[in-house]
Design a protein that fits this description.
Blueprint lengths: L1 E7 L7 E7 L1 E8 L10 E7 L5 E4 L3 E7 L5 E6 L8 E4 L15
Antiparallel strand pairs: 1-6, 1-8, 2-5, 2-7, 3-4, 3-6
Length: 105
């Protein structure tokens, strides 16, 4: 299952701390900060519950993940309240990003 790339538009942008407490996910993040050297680029990391690692995602990034196990629980610590009017997303299969999600299309 893919939880598509999502973010909050300014001034409601969020910083997130993401951790997997059950299972495994491929976490993908995209730099949306105009003027950044990595603007429009993405990267990914596998988060596994047994590793007990957390991923820091600063304001100005879209974030999504794909489950890699039968069951997964992802915890996100977010530094601000959700604002529905500021919610935005990028299609998980965006052709410009071309993220190779490990799931059938």
């Amino acid at each position: 299952m893919v939880r598509g790339l999502h973010f909050q538009k300014p001034p409601f942008a969020e910083t997130k701390l993401v951790r997997v407490v059950l299972g495994a996910v491929l976490d993908v993040f995209v730099d949306l900060r105009r003027g950044s050297k990595s603007y429009g680029q993405w990267d990914a990391i596998e988060l596994l519950n047994q590793d007990q690692k957390a991923l820091y995602i600063p304001k100005g990034f879209a974030h999504g993940y794909c489950t890699l196990s039968e069951e997964s629980i992802v915890l996100c610590k977010i530094d601000s309240r959700y604002a529905a009017e500021a919610a935005a997303d990028i299609r998980w299969d965006d052709a410009d990003l071309a993220v190779p999600w490990p799931t059938p299309t």
